[in-house]
């Protein structure tokens, strides 16, 4: 069994490009698609957002993003019916984006300052390539520091819930 390389946490780690993260391809829709379609895809893929392009493919420029937070604030919170509601009415248009070469620190900065949980990553033409999430950054850190994170005592802090809803 080969030993894992030992890493130390310093500022250079945060300068690694976003491409070092375990990124997933985005779920892509067009603004004309329904919120219900997007919510089903988010549930099926266990992903907290979808992105919109003009034609609903990764080959066209990013037009918007729709997240779990939008479901709560723009639909449920306003008593709207998602069945017939097009994504274009509730998506965030022209969201902040990053490039694959952007440092992880840039994603953390936007997530911290703006409160984002998901950031679209675009290619040089502005087409969606990936979505980076807080979960991706946590997974990256756990992968680099498995002993420090995974070997914590089970009762180190407040009692934890065993269900995802308690998270």
List keywords for this structure.
6 helices, 30% helix, CBS-domain, three-stranded mixed β-sheet, alpha/beta
Describe this structure in words.
The chain has helices at residues 11-14, 35-45, 68-75, 104-114, 134-144, 146-150, and strands at residues 28-30, 49-53, 62-67, 92-93, 98-99, 118-122, 128-133. It is built from six helices and seven strands, in the order αβαββαββαββαα. It starts with 10 loop residues before the first helix and ends in a 17-residue tail after the last helix. The chain has one domain (11-152): CBS-domain (Roll), CATH 3.10.580. The chain has a four-stranded mixed β-sheet. It has a three-stranded mixed β-sheet with strand order 5-6-7. By secondary structure, it is an alpha/beta fold. Strand 6 and strand 7 form a beta hairpin. The model has no long low-confidence stretch (mean pLDDT 88). The radius of gyration is 18 Å and the shape is globular.
How does the SSE layout of this entry go?
Blueprint: H1 11-14, E1 28-30, H2 35-45, E2 49-53, E3 62-67, H3 68-75, E4 92-93, E5 98-99, H4 104-114, E6 118-122, E7 128-133, H5 134-144, H6 146-150
Parallel strand pairs: 1-2, 5-6
Antiparallel strand pairs: 2-3, 3-4, 6-7
Which stretches are poorly predicted, pLDDT < 50 over at least 5 residues? none
At CATH's second level, what is the architecture? Roll
CATH class: Alpha Beta
Chain oligomer state: single chain
CATH topology: CBS-domain
Q: What is the helical fraction, as a range of percent?
A: 25-40%
What's the story with the biggest beta sheet? 4 strands, mixed
Q: First CA to last CA: what distance?
A: 34 Å
In CATH, what is the homologous superfamily? CBS-domain
Rg over CA atoms: 18 Å
DSSP strand count = 7
Identify the overall geometry.
Answer: globular
**What count of helical segments does DSSP give?**
6
Number of domains: 1
The succession of helices and strands, N to C, reads: HEHEEHEEHEEHH
Overall mean confidence score, pLDDT:
88
């Amino acid at each position: 069994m080969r030993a894992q390389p030992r890493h130390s946490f310093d500022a250079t780690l945060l300068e690694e490009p976003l491409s070092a993260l375990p990124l997933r391809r985005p779920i892509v829709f067009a603004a004309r698609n329904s919120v219900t379609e997007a919510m089903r895809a988010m549930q099926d893929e266990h992903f907290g957002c979808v992105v919109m392009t003009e034609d609903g493919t990764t080959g066209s420029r990013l037009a918007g993003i729709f997240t779990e937070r939008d479901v709560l604030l723009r639909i449920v919170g306003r008593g709207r019916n998602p069945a017939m509601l097009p994504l274009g009415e509730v998506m965030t248009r022209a969201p902040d984006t990053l490039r694959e070469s952007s440092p992880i620190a840039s994603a953390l900065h936007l997530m911290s300052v703006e409160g984002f949980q998901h950031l679209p990553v675009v290619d040089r033409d502005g087409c969606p390539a990936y979505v980076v999430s807080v979960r991706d950054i946590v997974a990256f850190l756990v992968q680099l520091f498995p002993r420090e994170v995974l070997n914590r005592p089970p009762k180190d802090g407040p009692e934890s819930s065993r269900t995802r809803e308690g998270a």
